Every structure is written in C-alpha cells, then in structure tokens.
Amino acid sequence: MSDLLMLMAQLTAPEPLNGPNPDVDIAPMAKAAVDAVSQLEQAVPQPAIQGDMALTPEFSREVAARQRQKLLRLQQTARRPEPTAFATTPRAVEVARRQPVAVTGPKPVSGPQLFEQRWAALQSGSLYTRVSPDSFHGKWSNATYQPTYAEWKGLLKQEASAIAAGQGNNRLTVVIGDSLSMWLPPEMLPRDRFWLNQGISGDTTGGILQRLSVFANTNPDTIHLMAGVNDLKNGASDQEILTNLHQIMARLRQQHPTARVVVHSILPTRWENIPSKRVRSLNTRIAQLTDYHQLDYLDLQPSFSNDTGNLRQDLTTDGLHLNRLGYQVWQLALLQV
C-alpha cells in the first residue's frame, strides 16, 4: 500500500503555477501505477480491520477496479485531474470578530455534561443540534461520569438511527472527527438542515475508520471530515495516517456515493511535539490524496496559522483545542463550502 500511495502522490501532485511541464512525461508513472493496482486486485491489499467493519474482498476488489479505471484514463491522457479546493484567508478572524454568535444561558463545558445533554435530547425525540444550548440543564448540570469510548459510539449510533428514521426530505450534513468536531457549537450551524455530529474526543484516523458504518443508513448531502491531530499527538507515522485516510475516503465514497465529501486540513497547533512544518507537509499529501479520490479539500491553515505556522494564540484554549473565536472562524469556513 505504501508504494501505491507514493505513486498516487506523484500522479496527483499539483501542477506548477505556469502550467504543466511539457518535458515531464507522466505516462510511465501512470503505467506503473496501473500495474501496481492490477497486483492489488489479485492480492486484496486493504489492511485488516477488526470487528464488523472488516473490509470484504468484494469491496477491496471494487475499490481497486475503480482505481485502475481512473489510472488507465490518466495513462491515456497523460494529464493529472484538477483538484477541487477551497482555501480560507487570515481575514476570516477579523470577520468572525465582527459577527459574534450570542449564547443565552449555561451550556455544557465538559464531556460528561455534553453526553448527558445529548442523551436527554434523544429521549425527548430530538437531537441536541436542534435545541437551545442550555436545554435539559437539570439533567446534565451535575454530570461527572466520564463516558467510555464505547458509550460515545453507542450515543452516536442512536443519533444516526434517529436521523435515518426521521430525515425525510430534509438536508443533512455530517461532521466526523475528534474533539475539535465534537465541540463544534450547534448554535453556530445553519438551521436550514439537520446536522449529525460524529466527533469523539481523542479519536484517531484508525478509530474513525472502524466506526463509519454507524451512519451508513443516513442520507447526507455533505460530509465534513477532519482527522489526524490525535494520531500526531500519539506518535503515529505520516504513512499510517495517510493509509487510514485513504481508506476512510474510499469508504465514504462507497457508502455515500451522492454526498459531497469535504476533507479539512489538519489544524496547526502550538505544541512542540507537533511541529508546524510536519503538519504543513502532511496537509499537502492529504490534499493530493483528496484530489485522487475526487473529493473536496478545505485548507484551513491560512486562517488558523500565525507568521511562524503555529496555531494563532487568540483562537485556542490550550494550543490544540479551539476557543469560541476559533470555532467562529471554522464556522465561516464551513459556510464557504
């Protein structure tokens, strides 16, 4: 798989600003990639996944066949596909400052409180994204029990089932990721659609990959994906992150063929063990991978980075997580796409 990813990165590298280099012939690279994918079809190379998310040989061969057809087209035309990309700007911070989102009353500030509020909303026949931020205060204000990862997955599954049963003709946007996604304030989201938040604090690309089936029966028109910062924090290699993201993108496209999938860049941090140079390099490869899968890419780095490439201090609580202004900047980016 690592060789295939390397070939994919070569094939999907962005063109120089002055256009394609006529002296570079990518046809041999395309042929090599086609040969590599032909071998993949025989070997069924997808890494094994435990549990009910295990990839079947049928799915693996189907993905490989689609990859082979795309690479054959590249070989015939010797041209790379143009990516669909959106980029934020530093001005987004000033725009967010001028457009504050008011919140009335208390709202959950801890994982236990948010968990209990979301369960209370479900039990009342609604989703927490459709109620006031201070709703069900009596049921969550004193919550201290820390839900397990399995319990969070159970909650997300229940919310997804509720959406699948009651969406009707309403639009649906899914947000999937880690704590950055989980704490996206629902009061900042447009009310013209349903929002299904599938973020879990501390989750990694590997964890996300194994729980995509939770919302498989929903019918979103847009899916936002941001993942990878916890992998970096936990010491994962770039190759491991890219391999997982490759499978996530393939699965989302197979699971929701009509949805628009928007892959967000990994946000910079202020943590020394997650250098900004590595984040930028990894985001470049994620953008190439997104282009390969013909998905949309949202580059958040211009809005969230300072002059040294680190996360802006005025947008974070601890150098990794976002404060309210940071979420307002992200909200503007979500509305952009």
TrEMBL record:
Which regions span the lipid bilayer? Answer: none
Q: Pfam families, alphabetically?
A: Lipase_GDSL_2 (PF13472)
**GO MF annotation list:** phosphatidylcholine lysophospholipase activity
On the tree of life, the source organism's domain of life is Bacteria
Domain SGNH hydrolase-type esterase, by residue range, is 182-329
Task: Write the protein's name.
Answer: Lysophospholipase
From which source organism is this entry?
Leptothoe spongobia TAU-MAC 1115
**Classification of source organism:** Bacteria, Bacillati, Cyanobacteriota, Cyanophyceae, Nodosilineales
